[in-house]
Amino acid sequence: MILASIQLETKQDYLDLFKQINQPLRQHYQGKARIMFGSNGVGYGTRIAGIEGFARMLWGAGPAIGQLAADWQKEIREGLLAGTDPQSPDYWGDLHDRDQRMVEMPAIALALLHDDHYLWRQFSALEQDQVATWLKQIFAHSCSDGNWQFFKILVYQVLVHLDVDVDSSDAEAAMIKIEQCYRADGWYQDSARGREDYYTPFAFQYYGILYSKLAPDDPQSEVFRQRAREFAGQFIHFFAADGANVPFGRSLTYRYAAVAFWVAMIYADIWPEKTAVIKGIINRNLRWWLQRPIFDESGLLTLGYSYSQLLMTEPYNSPTSPYWANKIFLLLALPQTHRYWQTVETELPQVPTKKLLAVPHLLASHDAGHTVLLNAGQPGPNYHALTNEKYFKFAYSSQFGFSVPRQNQLKEEAVMDSMLGLQTIDTTMTASRGGQNIVETGMFYSRNNVTDVTQTDDYVASTWRINNVMQARTWLIPLAGWQIRLHHISVKQTCVAYETGFAVADSPDTPGKVTTTDHSSAFRGPAGFTGIVDLTPQVLTQKDATIDGFPNTNLMTPEIVALPGRQTTLTAGEHWLVTGVYAHADLPHATAKWAQQPLAKLTDDYFEVQLAASKVTIKLR
């Protein structure tokens, strides 16, 4: 599919984009009310995944319904009736507690509301009752105490707008649970066990803004709108000038749903004076995505991030899941006269080079078009796939993303980028290095939970305990584009410490070059520069531990990746490590930055790091 060349100015441009992305779905109807393709499994089964395929198209087809061809409208209309008819072989079924079908209900319900109830008005009174009866099942069952509570709230509001008699008590209880998820600065925690991640912008905030349109006179609507304005000042730090958003957390296969929040801001007219800025954020992000191989040969969205990659997916990702990204096509509900269609996009505004995002424990850093989120980590239980990689690495990058493991033994398969791994020396394995078999420490433990989080405008810090033998406290400091890490490591027996920078594509077709010294490891190649250097003031014996990470492990590239690393042996006791990491896709810029490295000073009372006029001091006692 050649989508990157589509202009993103007029309403017709966005409608054309929606059609090109979603037209291939129409070849995969299974019956009238399910769309399903592919062969990989999903936790809730393929029959419900088929409902997902039908419903997720409606996030865009609903707002665009009156602008779609008659045959497309007919398919949607017949699918809605077949799916909600208990006598139909295509019936979507009766719900149970914590049912995945609840996730798809808001898109189905809202599609009935768009364009002056366009679809709803085409149904007879009996058909309307049938559809409403199926939707009302959501109020008879419990659902997850996170963003799912909004599904009840939105379905309730839609039914009220459609003059359907429905009890409000369950929706009111759901609103209480949503409020219990709210933290501060526009951020929500996705249930008591959940974390702060992209579910704030493309779920909580998106749904709260929709609610403010559905119930404008409810005082809660103004609360949601004010939270959206607060969050905008936070979320802008997830984006880079080229349009990329920093991958972090789960559900990254939803891809350009990352800008659904900004779309909702336009839809609800929350920040009208920023329309040109928001249009720029949306358009650059879409262009960034459309320049990547995220579609298969038939034009279907694939599972993965910047390419087809099952390795990084969640248990709840079916082949149709990525179409949740259709949330951005809420823009198609805007009238032709809306200012958005006449507005010329502007560049990303100037933002501070660093910004503390206190609720998710992130410290954003901006360096010549490269956005990095330094991460103290979020306390809480781990129950999502690859939690360590998605929530606990030291840094996440708009240019280099992060990597996920294929296994945890060889460094090449673990691809532990932006991590510190610790392991006692009695855990060994045989690996092939330089054509020879050698015995080395394997299966490193990395950060998987944190306590004692400290945050300032200059650094974030947290403690992580692996077991009774090993624990560490880590401070992360952005400094003039550099990432400085200070580790205080306590071990009760001899251990190996293995630390890495960012992983960068190193295709065998255009290989780069690794350079090492007694204190540093660096890589230069067509995709950019990445380096890691020991800045510890006292002499520390280290060795180069740079590896070529396996292909299809990094979110940004399917290629082999070069991952510079350093390794050292720590005897029983307490140790301090100071590490500098620098990476950038612009080689000349990176070369100049690497040539001027920070200076560190460490005493019993304080740590100080300086680079030119930039200096940060941390009290240790």
Supply the key terms:
28% helix, alpha+beta, 15 helices, eight-stranded antiparallel β-sheet, DUF2264_C, four-stranded antiparallel β-sheet, 621 residues
Short description:
This protein is elongated. It is built from 15 helices and 24 strands. Helix 4 runs parallel beside helix 6 (149-161), helix 6 (149-161) packs parallel to helix 8 and helix 10 packs antiparallel against helix 11.
The largest beta-sheet arranges its strands as 8-9-10-11-21-16-15-14
Helicity level = 25-40%
Q: Give the amount of beta strand, in percent.
A: 15-25%
The radius of gyration is 25 Å
Task: Give a count of the beta strands, DSSP E runs of length 2 or more.
Answer: 24
Q: In this structure, how is the largest beta sheet organized?
A: 8 strands, antiparallel
What is the tally of helical segments? 15
**Distance between the ends:** 59 Å
Gross geometry? elongated
Low-pLDDT stretches are none
| Integer average pLDDT | 96
Structural class: alpha+beta
Organism: Loigolactobacillus jiayinensis
InterPro entries: DUF2264_C, DUF2264_N, UCP014753
Pfam families: DUF2264 (PF10022), DUF2264_C (PF20938)
Domain DUF2264: 10-347, 354-596
